[in-house]
Amino acid sequence: MLLWLLHLWAQPPVGVRLVCPDPRAGEAYDPGGLYNAAEIVARWQMMAVVSIALVVALLLGCYLLPRASLNRGFVVRWWGTLAVSGGLCLLVPLAVGAYSPVHARAGSCSTRPAAFLVDLPFDLLLPRMLAGLVWGLLAFAVVSLLATWLLGRWSGAGGFFHYRGCPWPRWNPGQG
To answer: What does 49-95 look like in DSSP terms, one character per residue?
Structure first.
């Protein structure tokens, strides 16, 4: 039922209807056309790649920028970066949808038979935004655990080595 929340690479919607442009004088009204499915698939893949890149960049920044050993500052920074990861992954579909419009499928609208640019509607992006939020939070936490477990064995791994004893920061950052 809610599996789409956890699966960032879920199949994009197929056969999504759009509102065709108004007809010229004397033409019949066209109730709706279709989006170009290949372009929607490309946008969904772009959302996944950008989300992955953001999570990895935030993780590297969280662990490798500071020079101190595990302290209260790291715990607060880890929780803050976790929240930023979820928030940015929530906004990625909105940004991709707003800045990369797709075309209507050629011939799907009788009022304008050629392919034309059309924006993705918010209700089409909202499920992907919610999935991005959940995925961003889970991915940051899981990759953080794996990175400190794997890279923490090597002393040249910087912050991953220093924080290896605590790959998952304490639940209450105030108790540090």
So the answer is: HHHHHHHHHHHHHHHHS--S-S-HHHHHHHHHHHHHHHHHHHHHHHH
